Amino acid sequence: MLDGGLSNRLQDQGCDVDDPLWTARVLLREPDELLRAHRAYARAGAQVLTTASYQASFEGFARHGVGRAAAARLMGDSVRLARAAGAPWVAASVGPYGAVLADGSEYRGRYGLSTAELVRFHRPRIEALAAAGPDVLALETVPDAVEAAAMLTAARGCGVPVWLSYTVAGGRTRAGQPLDEAFAVAAGNEQVVAVGVNCCAPDEVPAAVARAVAVTGRPAVAYPGSGETWDAARGRWHGRAVGPAASAGAWRAAGARLIGGCCRVGPEAVAELAEVLGPAASR
């Protein structure tokens, strides 16, 4: 069983994540608060803790005056802090290029970069995280099958297994590709231990999970958001929050073996999920 949204938990603790580094800003400025957030999810029953490296990059840290060697240490620290929180497994988060731009383009993809350019961007981040010894790399919130292929190439030979997780809408990637085409980039890749979706509406999960399993033959990973919608004009969320516990049984029946939450899913919702999944959460 996975954890929930790290940013919302940090905000609940009074941390400021309004920065292009996002949760990595807390990694840089308030690591004790990050450890506190991880521990909250571990206490709630999460067996996999995800690091605060989603928007971390050498370029982003450089804008804060952090040199390359120090940035690599900080990325490693994200793994070490999650490990110190006490859950059995640590997933090192590798967000898409659009996340590092911090302009919402991870929900569009298609940045105008070649596959080779994307590989060159992701490879140093992956190397820095892998060197710290996570149990898995979470290639997550990926909007585009082209970038997914580039991220898998960048992770090749790093010595750490990966899961690949797309953000989807309307039964397609955010870049508009059919899910069968998107999941196919991971088919036959022995480094990939799971394929699925995150940072999407909960009702997108069942069909996507079923396609992920059918196309790749791998277990699925599923950790959607709360189902609320962000209103950028008004600066607030609206809609009804639905925790993953409400649908976890159906996701598991469709083939999901790694289940948790993303945006706006906090420790309380993860604790409810732990009750629903029970002993199966440890398998």
List the helices and strands and how they pair.
Layout: H1 6-12, H2 23-29, H3 31-44, E1 48-50, H4 58-62, H5 68-84, E2 89-94, H6 97-101, H7 115-130, E3 136-142, H8 145-155, E4 162-166, E5 168-169, E6 172-173, H9 179-184, E7 192-198, H10 205-216, E8 220-223, E9 229-231, E10 236-238, H11 248-254, E11 256-259, H12 267-277
Helix pairs in contact: 2-3, 3-12, 5-7, 7-8
What does this protein look like?
It is globular, with a radius of gyration of 17 Å. The longest helix has 17 residues, at 68-84. The protein is of the alpha/beta class and 283 residues long. The mean pLDDT is 94. The protein has a seven-stranded parallel beta sheet with strand order 1-2-3-4-7-8-11. Strands 5-6 form a two-stranded antiparallel ribbon. The protein has twelve helices and eleven strands. It has one domain: Alpha-Beta Barrel (TIM Barrel), CATH 3.20.20. Keywords: Metal-binding, Methyltransferase, Transferase, Zinc. GO terms for molecular function: S-adenosylmethionine-homocysteine S-methyltransferase activity; zinc ion binding. InterPro entries: BHMT-like, HCY_dom, HCY_dom_sf, Hcy_S-methyltransferase. Residues 1-277 form the Hcy-binding domain.
